[in-house]
Amino acid sequence: AQTVTQSQPEMSVQEAETVTLSCTYDTSENNYYLFWYKQPPSRQMILVIRQEAYKQQNATENRFSVNFQKAAKSFSLKISDSQLGDTAMYFCAFMKHVDSGGGADGLTFGKGTHLIIQP
Amino acid sequence: NAGVTQTPKFRVLKTGQSMTLLCAQDMNHEYMYWYRQDPGMGLRLIHYSVGEGTTAKGEVPDGYNVSRLKKQNFLLGLESAAPSQTSVYFCASSYLSGRPQHFGDGTRLSIL
């Protein structure tokens, strides 16, 4: 079984600052996927970024980027130029790769980091 | 542009009552999932389905049953609700395993 650990229950930064959320995971799998999801007060689960473990290049999506360290089993999220709308719970999640026809696997989530962007 | 729709959005039940949560997706996705979210926790997988007519157990399946009679619908049933099942329930779907999951808006369920 996989486990995902987010060691920062809450973080607070000023608007326009850069913030990094940490995530570590434990798995014996070699091929898998990692995700960051955002959950604002509206309760929606919104995909922020996705990383494929076999790709060494770190994924980026506009102001969001990750630092994926496969050997260290670390997957941190960096938010640049933070905005008030970034205030939310952020969840790191893991999914193992399943070959086509081999079924599926759900997401394993960490407990989340509550990020507060101060004006 | 509905995506994933969950019905109802909120429900209060008494211990021992039964109910069914409905999840419908209009994206022709094969894979569908049910999660629960408790305070201070991330989402945990209850059951999932890899296609019409198939279901499988996730991390916390006890006390729940599911059915996928049509590709677009995934039903979650509570036969005899217990206070420990008070939670927010999320349905999700994806095109392929490993692809991003699209989530519904959640159902807040309270068991008294």
Description:
Chain A is mainly β and 119 residues long. Chain A contains no helices and 12 strands. The mean pLDDT of chain A is 94. In chain A, the strands form 3 sheets. In chain A, strands 2, 5, 6, 10, 11 and 12 form a 6-stranded mixed beta sheet that branches. The termini of chain A are far apart. With 112 residues, chain B is mostly beta strands. Helix content of chain B is 0%, strand content 49%. In chain B, strands 2, 4, 5, 6, 9, 10 and 11 form a 7-stranded mixed beta sheet that branches. A 4-stranded antiparallel beta sheet of chain B has the order 1-3-8-7, with no helix packed on it. Chain B is globular. The model of chain B has no long low-confidence stretch (mean pLDDT 94). The A-B interface holds A 4, 33, 35, 42-45, 47, 50, 52, 91, 93, 95, 97-98, 103-112 and B 31, 33, 35, 40-45, 48, 50, 56, 58-59, 88, 90, 92, 97-98, 100-101, 103, 105-106.
Helix and strand layout, with pairings?
The complex is a heterodimer of chains A (119) and B (112).
Chain A (H helix, E strand, L loop, with lengths): L2 E3 L4 E5 L4 E3 L2 E3 L5 E8 L6 E7 L7 E2 L2 E6 L4 E6 L8 E9 L11 E2 L3 E6 L1
Parallel strand pairs in A: 2-12
Antiparallel strand pairs in A: 1-4, 3-9, 5-6, 5-10, 7-8, 8-9, 10-11, 10-12
Chain B lengths: L3 E4 L2 E4 L5 E7 L5 E7 L5 E7 L6 E2 L7 E3 L5 E6 L8 E8 L7 E2 L3 E5 L1
Parallel strand pairs in B: 2-11
Antiparallel strand pairs in B: 1-3, 3-8, 4-5, 4-9, 5-6, 7-8, 9-10, 9-11
Element-by-element helix/strand order of chain B: EEEEEEEEEEE
- Which protein chains are joined by the largest interface, and how many residues does each one contribute? A-B, 25 and 24 residues
**Broad shape of chain A:** globular
Q: Helix segment count of chain A? A: 0
Q: Helix- and strand-based class of chain A? A: mainly beta
Which oligomeric form is depicted? heterodimer
What is the residue-averaged pLDDT of chain B? Answer: 94
How many strand elements of chain B? 11
Structural Rg of chain A: 14 Å
Separation of termini of chain A? 41 Å
